[in-house]
Specification:
The chain is of the alpha+beta class. Helices cover about 40% and strands about 10% of the residues. The chain contains 18 helices and 13 strands. The protein has helices at about 1-20, 25-40, 145-155, 165, 215-235, 250-265, 300-320, 330-345, 355-360, 375-390, 395-400, 415-430, 435-455, 480-500, 500-515, 540-545, 585-590, 590-605; strands spanning about 55, 70, 80-85, 90-95, 100, 110-115, 120-130, 130-135, 180-185, 195-200, 210-215, 275-280, 295. The strands form three sheets. It has a five-stranded mixed beta sheet with strand order 10-9-13-12-11. Strands 1-2-6-5 form a four-stranded antiparallel beta sheet, with no helix packed on it. The relative contact order is 0.11. Bound molecules: ligand 9MR (2 copies). One ligand 9MR binds near residues 368, 583 and 585. One ligand 9MR binds near residues 207, 208, 583 and 589.
């Protein structure tokens, strides 16, 4: 009790001190302190100095955004203080009961500290007990990570040397030229019998593995081009130091072009798309130049063909501006997209079933499947993009016949929402001219998006990590950081664009805070960024190149409640089931369709800095 009184007196002195700095806070802090003291029955004051776990966005904060830090592992009423770079005290306060929140997965409890009143750019230090953390307030919070996220695609390029002047110590010789790829028996036609050699160079390695998959390429490009009308201003001058930099085309488009060129080579003479270009089995953890397996193009599929149609139609629209640098490309892409759509109309249900393929053909193929047994959403997305590019009513009619019945988060296997948001951004940020028919689709898309967003953000400020993402077990699936936290944040930014209601933008940033460090494990889930980031991704190049640091700018999968390589995981709890271990491919792989979410998100966050 004696201790309590001393501490209380001490609190009052501090309050007075804070009051000198920020007079308005005095009343509030005093009231809250007394209230908390009276309410708390289980408090232990003084006692030993514990290490606090400070969960914070390690990228920093924009001057005018909400800045909440989550502190765990210390008892109530512990004090915190913030100093600036020259050691001046900026803010002090206490961890209060009113600001305590519990995990939905366990008894873990943490306090929110709101530092939003700190708006002057600069470095600051937050100290809780003996734990001190630096954070920065600045205008270019996501510039470097956005550049690195784009550059990461360059590091994924196959078929060309990755040179030191662009890649520094991560340079490597050319490999996987893919100029002599065999047509797999599953893909044989009269024109191209099994064993025919085709040339299918360039393109990005999909992920930790070295194969190239059309479904995922279409999705990754789709996700980045989808947001393009909204972030064009921001991205157009971003130089990421790749071989094409300085040619008058935004680097993001230069980089995407490298994969588009490859995708064009994957279209068979009849218009259909080979599902993937792959080795029969995954390669070992060796560098590209040490890979020896023969590569094949395998069976055509409806989903791959439509993802191709959609992304080529988008590309045709967006690259039309750069006819000088890419002569003939815009037209070529549109023609290819139309031929692909036609093929899909004639072959509406040709799914990729690897187990069936392996019963009938050899060699057997055991690499990633991107298997998807429903092509309706792919038809919808492709028809939408073809309409936006051509203005032809036929495609709008097609799109209307494949309208989704409910809202779904866009992922490689479900792309209808890419169609919906592409539509919205075309009219809100792009050049689209509205008609009564286009307005019908627009209202349909807007209703679905806003209804989803309202449910999604509900009560996020009362969650332990103060984010809409991360409170349910189902949030933690394979690729939780990209397909959950980042993609959902993107959808919220798109909701903000169409409603102008700032609550959506604020909640998008909360998911970003989570992804970049305000999470139970304190990971900034992007390689090379933040104070604690993955060092051992399931990425063959990073593992085999003999360099300690992984390739930078890669977003890893993140916690996965169903991660099954049991021995790697310290925790059962869904939001902690992550291992920075090369073997943990269900939590620590990287992939182009996850980095596309990172690129789009960081560019969109930079674009909207208000509030
Ligand atoms: O390395 C493979 C990775 O790229 C894939 O995403 C993953 C799932 O398809 O498979 C990985 O390969 C693993 C295989 O599936 C199971 N045995 C261990 C393999 C490599 O660690
Ligand atoms: O991203 C894919 C994920 O949604 C699937 O659950 C998983 C298992 O089929 O495969 C993931 O994709 C992998 C692909 O099959 C092969 N390259 C690596 C991809 C990322 O793990």
């Amino acid at each position: 009790m004696f201790f309590c009184i001393i501490h209380f007196a001490y609190s009052l002195i501090i309050c007075n001190f804070v009051a000198k700095l920020q007079p308005i806070y005095l009343g509030i802090i005093m009231k809250k302190t007394i209230f908390a003291l009276l309410l708390s029955s289980s408090m232990t004051l003084g006692a030993s100095a514990q290490d606090a776990a400070i969960h914070i966005n390690q990228m920093g904060f924009f001057p005018h955004q909400e800045k909440v830090v989550v502190v765990e592992g210390v008892k109530m009423l512990k004090k915190y203080n913030v100093t600036d770079a020259s050691g001046h005290k900026i803010e002090r306060g206490f961890l209060l009961k009113d600001n305590a929140y519990r995990s939905t997965f366990s008894d873990d409890q943490a306090y929110h500290i709101d530092l939003s009143s700190i708006i002057r750019p600069g470095d600051y230090y937050l100290e809780v007990n003996k734990t001190k953390t630096k954070f920065t307030v600045k205008n270019d919070v996501y510039d470097d990570v956005c550049k690195a996220a784009i550059k990461a695609f360059y590091y994924q390029r196959s078929g060309m040397p990755i040179e030191a002047k662009y890649a520094g110590k991560w340079n490597r010789p050319a490999a996987h030229m893919d100029t002599e790829v065999l047509v797999h028996p599953s893909a044989a036609t009269e024109a191209r019998p099994a064993g025919t050699k085709i040339s299918s160079p360039k393109g990005w390695y999909d992920a930790g593995d070295y194969n190239k998959y059309i479904v995922n390429s279409g999705f990754a490009i789709g996700q980045m081009l989808n947001i393009y009308p909204l972030v064009e201003e921001y991205l157009k001058d971003l130089d990421v130091n790749i071989p094409e930099s300085g040619n008058g085309v935004p680097d993001i488009l230069n980089e995407i072009y490298y994969n588009l060129e490859w995708m064009l080579t994957m279209q068979d003479t009849d218009g259909g798309l080979y599902h993937k270009l792959t080795t029969p089995n995954f390669e070992g953890f060796v560098m590209p130049k040490d890979c020896k397996q023969q590569r094949y193009v395998v069976q055509k599929s409806t989903c791959a063909t439509l993802d191709f149609a959609a992304s080529m139609a988008m590309a045709s629209r967006i690259y039309a501006k750069y006819e000088k640098q890419f002569p003939g490309f815009s037209k070529k892409a549109l023609d290819a997209a139309k031929r692909a759509y036609l093929w899909a109309l004639q072959n509406p249900e040709v799914y990729y079933r690897q187990e069936v393929l392996n019963k009938n053909f050899s060699p057997k193929v055991n690499t990633g499947t991107y298997g998807d047994m429903n092509a309706k959403d792919e038809f919808f997305w492709a028809a939408i993009e073809l309409y936006l590019t051509t203005g032809s009513d036929m495609f709008l009619k097609e799109a209307n016949s494949y309208k989704p019945s409910n809202f779904s988060i866009p992922v490689w296997g479900n792309v209808s929402t890419l169609g919906l948001t592409s539509w919205l951004l075309h009219y809100y940020c792009g050049t689209g001219k509205r008609t009564s028919e286009t307005l019908q689709m627009e209202n349909f898309a807007k209703d679905l998006l806003v209804n989803w967003a309202d449910k999604y953000i509900n009560n996020s400020e009362k969650t332990m990590f103060m984010a809409p993402f991360g409170t349910k077990k189902s949030d933690f699936h394979w690729a939780s950081m990209a397909e959950g936290a980042a993609t959902e944040a993107l959808l919220l930014i798109q909701t903000y664009v169409v409603t102008k209601d700032k609550k959506y933008l604020i909640n998008a940033r909360r998911n970003a805070d989570y992804l970049f460090g305000r999470n139970p494990l304190n990971y900034c889930y992007v390689t090379g960024f933040g104070q604690k980031s993955p060092m051992n991704p399931h990425h063959r190049i990073s593992a085999a190149d003999g360099i300690e640091e992984p390739i930078p700018g890669l977003l890893v999968g993140g916690p996965n409640a169903t991660a099954n390589e049991g021995k790697y995981y310290e925790f059962e709890q869904p939001d902690k089931r992550y291992a920075d271990n090369q073997g943990s491919y269900t939590t620590n792989e990287i992939a182009i369709n996850w980095n596309s979410a990172l690129v789009a998100l960081t560019a969109a966050l930079q674009t909207y800095q208000e509030y």
